[in-house]
Design brief:
The complex is a heterodimer. By secondary structure, chain A is an alpha/beta fold. Chain A has helices spanning 20-28, 46-56, 101-111, 152-157, 172-175, 185-204, 210-229, 243-260, 268-282, 284-297, 300-316; strands at 2-6, 33-38, 60-62, 77-82, 85-90, 115-118, 124-129, 132-137, 321-328, 331-340, 343-352. Chain A has a 6-stranded mixed sheet with strand order 3-2-1-9-10-11. Chain B is elongated, with a radius of gyration of 47 Å. In chain B, 44% of the residues are buried. Chain B has 40 helices and 2 strands. Classes of the chains: A alpha/beta, B mainly alpha. Chains A and B meet through strand 2, helix 2, strand 3, strand 4 and strand 5 of A and helix 22, helix 24, helix 26, helix 28 and helix 30 of B.
Chain lengths: 354, 916
């Protein structure tokens, strides 16, 4: 049973539409998806909802987000049974503190669900905590997000009084050992070792709260298991041929992340960034192409702006992403689709109910 | 004599054929001629329809071919063809006579030293003797068929070394003459017989048209590519002259089509002017558009094959023709003009690529003014729509190639360029008289633009005011009808120069304000663009300044200073504009959320004064809200926003407080806001809401990390935290929970408070939220639990009864969930399918068969509906809330919480101190 989870489309007030490649991917799998879950801010565009109903699946369950003013009939929470799981849906905008792990845990307890889906942060996340699976599918359109953004420029500036942290280290680093499935067998063992190391490291790091520690170790073991099981798995959605290069690239990027020895990725925003780096080295030519044109135009301003252009886009948009849950009795595989550099990338997390 | 019926005629022909063949084998030539003549008599029958006549003609043709072969083979041995040519002249009747003459004459052409020129001239001359249309046509066709071989195989008729073309010119003359005569006969056929059979005549003529066209085909096979001048100067004018002179619609349309199709494209370009001139002289009812479109399609195909061919005069020629047509033919229906223009736009796109827009604009301008001369019908509107969508309806597959154009395929940004570069494209579109059709067209265009802008490769965007003006002009009709479209449109506006971007957005703002639009949603989208602008602008200032600092310190210092002031003014201006936009939104809920988000953004940019003001505005909006559910959510939402702010309070990251006075001033902002927020929360009407609001507000005194800022729990040591105030909030909410006059709800609230207490406990707040406090709370809950369980037992409600009551309640209430008809299915997992939401609502699980179409829920609430609609108070939430009377649900929640505490003991020793 395939369940599609989308969130924060913000059409039309923040985004025009789903990326074309997402649209193709979803409409190509019309008969495979048996349910669509919308986690808020997806209800404003009639065109978008019609697209889902007509081209994807008309069994849609939607909860209200902060911008769904007109949809007064929609609930703020919902429970959906699937296989041996109960899936909880909750609107991200009523969680204080926003995106807080412990608060989410409380909600999962309150709703009595095995899997909790939420949105509102525009950052795709998936982690297991207290034997429960937490999934935030991010924004399916990559809409503008008014939350804090990383401020690298300010850190170099010296003006910043906030720059003492190590950049993107977040609480979830310990929490979310993302169980990225391996596509090649060689990688499995290395990856598993890596995870154990990480887990040890996490254990050694005596945190103010021991809870986190426990999370980390449970995560690591989880990751090992899923690493073994994940071999030879296939993505449920395939978009003709166009998907293949994406997959290949994806495998590559995973490899790279493990070579880094830098620990498992935390949020998908980062994964995507790494992918971006990777592809930018691969496509040096395209970068070269741009520069002579800029020189030709001559204006200093133009050049400056074109350099910072991509950065600016990061400031005002996020990476489009969504999740697909494949529920088979007591096993739930989460496929995370991200759209980076005009490519759709897929990652997999496996979760088993205990 | 001829037979009376077709059958008899066929029989006779067969018989005569056999007899003739027998005579030939016996070399009785005179007898053979006699039989042939008998057979040919059948072609004299005036009662035959053209179709029947053709049938007989074909059989006879074959027989005559045998005769001809015999004649050629036995020339000089048995007879001399000159003698025979003389001899057949004595045949009694003109039809057999001429057929036999052509048979002998053409046989003679096979002979090497025959007087070919003289024979040909004589044969074509003699054909004038038959003026009955059908008989004349077939006779001439026979002549054409018999001479075809010699013309096409390059048999020389005139050997004249000084003039190379003389032979070819003779052949052309011969064919042309024959063509002209045939055409005259063909046209005359129309006027044969009674008037009431006019339609039948027309049908018969169309059946015969191939006979006439065959002459043109013959011409095209004689002419080589190098003969283009010969064609233009000699052949074409003569044919066209006949076309004009015959004054017959069928002939004119058919012949021009054939001319345009059979001669090579190079000829067409060369003869363009002549064809165009000719089309002006046609009879009034002949379809000009049909001819011109065929001509244009030919040009398009030519350009496709030879892309490097450039001749800018083609458009000019057609354009000046169009102008003449406009002057000379005021009788022409608008339809004709639209069809021509439609097809021309495609030509222009191809011929004048990559800059076809000036010419395209001329075309749109032409039709824009032209249509004023006519009354516009539905059909005209539909045709104009097609014209504007660049979708050609040509189904002409003569060339085996699809000439149809798909706008989206030709170029990604075609519509975009049309809108920005062709003033009259927009004018024409806006001037469509059918409002719905107009909006449909605009929507189609924009959906294409949006789809293309969605592609990563697409670079086009609206970056200057002229473009913007064009677009807004076009969107004007949609302002009331399609908010979604207008809202999406703003996201296309992008200029790298951020001040220009600001001007563009301001232009949009004024545009919306000046129109009577459905402002709320549209403004929301515009505000988002302002937000983006602010983020980009601040980033730009921050990245630029260090660069400049390093360079030329003294010189730039003052400049930098000025720039900084400038940018500060700009940023402030941005926020003011947003503030104004928000005020113009006619809906307190949207205003509230816009204010909160703007305040958060201002806070992120360390603009605490602005941030404070926007938060204050949000509270003003809050006061305007009347729905209690909405009020509760608003309190939670604003506390979520406030909890993530950093600049509002005077708490320094590195722990060093500034001077006392500033610290107090600044901390006032944050304290003011959070106190106000908690106060509003505690004043909500509903006690549940009160309790939960205050509970959530406790987080306002307990700052948590913002990962994007590099903060980390346990590492960053300087969060703003005030355990005392947290405890005050917890206690206040506990008091409210206790005062709720409903056991079940009260119990649920205390369990929720317990979970919040555990939160602070885990976070290490033990000086106020002590173990003792935890244990006390658990004790309190347990006491309440006993009463609750007793109450449940007293009620002796069986599970089924509870379920039924719940389901009945579901059915009664006007909830978002359709009531279930198959309750049996739910018996199995009734208890496990309910849960409590974070706002205390009880949620029944959704099942596949239950979930209604989302659009059914939403469609009633389409965007363009009146947004002043009072918010539906009978929300689903309330009907859920009453299910809370089912005591099991909060009790189970409590049990799960206790389990959680037990589980935590294995990893966190502190939990061992909590008694469960």
């Amino acid at each position: 049973m395939l369940i599609l989870a989308l969130s924060d489309a913000y059409i039309p007030e923040r985004a025009i539409d789903l990326p074309i490649k997402f649209q193709k991917l979803l409409s190509a799998s019309k008969n495979k998806i048996s349910q669509v879950l919308l986690l808020g801010n997806c209800n404003k565009s009639v065109k978008f909802v019609e697209f889902l109903e007509q081209k994807v699946c008309d069994n849609i369950i939607s909860i209200k987000g902060e911008s769904d003013y007109q949809a007064t009939q929609l609930p703020y929470n919902a429970i959906v049974p699937a296989g041996n799981f109960k899936i909880g849906l909750t609107s991200g905008f009523l969680i204080v503190p926003k995106n807080d792990v412990l608060s989410l845990l409380t909600i999962s307890r309150q709703l009595d669900v095995d899997i909790l889906l939420w949105g509102g942060t525009h950052n795709v996340e998936a982690y297991v905590l207290e034997n429960k699976l937490f999934i935030n599918p991010g924004s399916c359109t990559g809409a503008f997000n008014a939350d804090w953004v990383m401020e690298e420029a300010e850190a170099t500036d010296g003006e910043s009084d906030l720059g003492e942290g190590t950049g993107s280290q977040v609480l979830e680093e310990e929490v979310s050992k993302l169980n990225i499935s391996e596509t090649g067998t060689d990688l499995d063992e290395a990856a598993a070792d890596q995870e154990v190391e990480e887990a040890d490291k996490a254990k050694n790091l005596e945190k103010a709260s021991d809870v986190e520690d426990q999370k980390a170790s449970s995560e690591a073991s989880k990751a090992q298991e899923s690493g073994k099981r994940g071999t030879g798995s296939k993505e449920p959605l395939e978009e003709d041929k166009a998907d293949e290069p994406g997959n290949a690239k994806n495998a590559e990027s995973e490899e790279k992340m493990h070579e880094d020895g830098h620990g498992a990725p935390v949020t998908y925003a980062e994964t995507a960034k790494k992918n971006e780096d990777l592809s930018s080295t691969q496509h040096d030519k395209s970068v070269e192409k741009d520069t002579p044109q800029d020189n030709g135009s001559g204006s200093d301003n133009d050049q400056d702006e074109s350099e910072t252009d991509s950065d600016d886009d990061e400031l005002v948009s996020s990476i489009p992403s969504f999740c697909l849950l494949d529920v088979q009795e007591s096993v739930c595989s989460v496929y995370i689709y991200t759209y980076v550099d005009d490519e759709v990338k897929v990652d997999k997390v496996k979760y088993e109910k205990q | 004599m001829y037979s009376n019926s077709l059958e008899q005629a066929n029989g006779n022909i067969k018989q005569q054929t056999v007899l003739m063949a027998r005579c030939l084998s016996q070399h009785k030539l005179m007898d053979a001629f006699k039989h042939a003549s008998n057979m040919l008599s059948e072609l004299r029958n005036p009662l035959l329809s053209p179709k029947q006549y053709y049938e007989l003609y074909v059989t006879i043709y074959d027989t005559l071919t045998t005769l001809q072969q015999y004649l050629v083979e036995n020339h000089k041995t048995k007879h001399h063809l000159t003698d025979l040519y003389e001899l057949v002249q004595y045949a009694g009747n003109i039809i057999p006579r001429l057929y036999l003459m052509i048979t002998v004459g053409s046989a003679y052409l096979y002979i090497e030293d025959s007087p070919k020129l003289a024979i040909c001239k004589d044969m074509i001359e003699m054909c004038n003797g038959v003026q009955q249309p059908v008989r004349g046509l077939f006779l001439r066709y026979y002549l054409s068929q018999r001479t075809k071989e010699f013309f096409e195989n390059g048999v020389i008729f005139i050997d004249h070394k000084s003039e190379e073309n003389i032979d070819k010119i003779f052949k052309i003359d011969f064919i042309t003459t024959n063509f002209i005569e045939m055409n005259k006969l063909w046209v005359r056929l129309q006027y044969q017989g009674p008037l009431k059979e006019k339609d039948l005549r027309t049908k018969e003529r169309k059946e015969l048209q191939v006979l006439i066209g065959s002459n043109l085909v013959r011409l095209s096979s004689i002419l080589e590519l190098s003969d283009v001048d010969l064609y233009t100067e000699n052949v074409l004018p003569r044919i066209l002259e006949q076309v004009v002179q015959c004054r017959d619609i069928i002939a004119q349309e058919y012949l021009l089509e054939i001319i345009l199709k059979i001669f090579p494209e190079e000829f067409q370009i060369s003869g363009l002017t002549k064809i165009l001139e000719c089309s002006l002289k046609l009879t009034p009812k002949t379809s000009i558009s049909k001819i011109i479109i065929t001509l244009i399609e030919r040009m398009i195909l030519f350009k496709k094959r030879s892309a490097d061919y450039t001749d800018s005069s083609v458009f000019n020629k057609i354009w000046s023709y169009l102008v003449t047509l406009d002057e000379e033919r005021p009788d022409l229906p608008i339809k004709e003009f639209i069809l021509i223009i439609s097809s021309l736009t495609q030509l222009v796109q191809l011929w004048d690529a990559p800059h076809p827009y000036i010419n395209l604009d001329s075309l749109y301008k032409f039709i824009f003014y032209k249509k004023d001369d006519y009354t516009i019908t539905e059909e005209t509107n539909n045709m104009l729509k097609k014209l504007l969508l660049i979708s050609s309806s040509s189904t002409n597959d003569f060339f085996g190639e699809n000439i149809e154009f798909d706008a989206a395929k030709t170029t990604d940004d075609l519509y975009f360029n049309l809108i920005t570069k062709c003033e009259y494209y927009v004018e024409l579109l806006v001037s469509l008289s059918n409002e719905q059709l107009k909006i449909d067209t605009i929507e189609t265009i924009f959906h294409t633009i949006f789809d293309n802008s969605n592609k990563k490769t697409s670079k086009y965007k609206i970056s200057n005011k002229d473009h913007l003006i064009q677009f807004t002009k076009m969107l004007q009709p949609c302002l009331l009808e399609n908010c979604e479209l207008v809202s999406k449109f703003f996201h296309l506006i992008k200029n790298k120069n951020l001040q220009t971007q600001f001007d563009l957005l301001n232009y949009c703002h004024n545009w919306i304000i000046s129109t009577n639009s459905n402002r709320g949603y549209i403004l929301e989208s515009l505000i988002v663009e302002y937000w983006k602008l602010i983020r980009k602008y601040c980033k730009k200032i921050n990245t630029k300044s260090p660069l400049q600092k390093s360079k030329k310190k003294n010189e730039t210092l003052t400049k930098l200073h000025v720039e900084k002031i400038d940018s500060a003014t700009f940023i402030k201006q941005f926020f003011k504009t947003i503030g104004r936009c928000i005020q113009e939104i006619p809906n307190a809920e949207i205003q509230f959320k816009m204010n909160c988000t703007t305040a958060s953004l201002a806070d992120q940019l360390k603009l605490k004064d602005l941030s404070y003001d926007f938060f204050v505005n949000a509270f003003i909006n809050f006061e305007e809200m009347s729905d209690s559910q909405l009020q509760y959510q608003s309190i939670v939402y604003i506390s979520q926003c406030l909890q993530k702010t950093r600049s509002l309070f005077a708490f320094e990251k590195n722990g060093e407080n500034k001077s006392l006075s500033t610290a107090q001033n600044e901390s006032n902002y944050y304290e003011n806001l959070i106190t106000k927020c908690t106060l509003y929360g505690s004043k909500l009407l509903n006690k549940q809401d009160q309790c939960r609001s205050v509970l959530q507000c406790s987080h306002l005194w307990w700052c948590t990390e913002v990962p994007a800022l590099g903060e980390e729990e346990g590492v960053t040591g300087s969060f703003f935290r005030d355990g005392k105030r947290v405890l005050e909030c917890l206690q206040r909410s506990l008091r409210v929970a206790d005062s709720v006059m409903d056991n079940c709800t009260s119990f649920l609230l205390t369990v929720e408070i317990l979970n919040r207490v555990l939160y602070y406990f885990i976070h290490g707040e033990t000086s106020y939220v002590t173990i003792k406090y935890c244990n006390g709370l658990i004790e309190l809950i347990k006491t309440n639990l006993q009463f609750l369980e007793r109450e449940t037992r007293m009620a002796t409600t069986s599970k089924n009864e509870i379920e039924n009551s719940v389901l009945n309640h579901q059915a009664d209430s006007n909830s978002a969930l359709p009531s279930t008809s198959s309750s049996a299915e739910h018996h199995a997992n009734f208890l496990t399918c309910y849960g409590i939401g974070i706002d205390g609502t009880i949620i029944k699980s959704f099942n596949k068969q239950e979930s209604s179409k989302l659009s059914d829920v939403l469609f009633g609430k389409r965007l363009h509906q009146n947004e002043h609609d009072a918010i539906d108070k009978a929300s689903a939430q309330k009907s859920f809330a009453s299910i809370a009377k089912n005591n099991r649900i909060p009790i189970e929640f409590f049990e799960r919480t206790l389990n959680y505490i037990k589980l935590q003991r294995t990893v966190d020793d502190r939990f061992k101190l909590i008694a469960t």
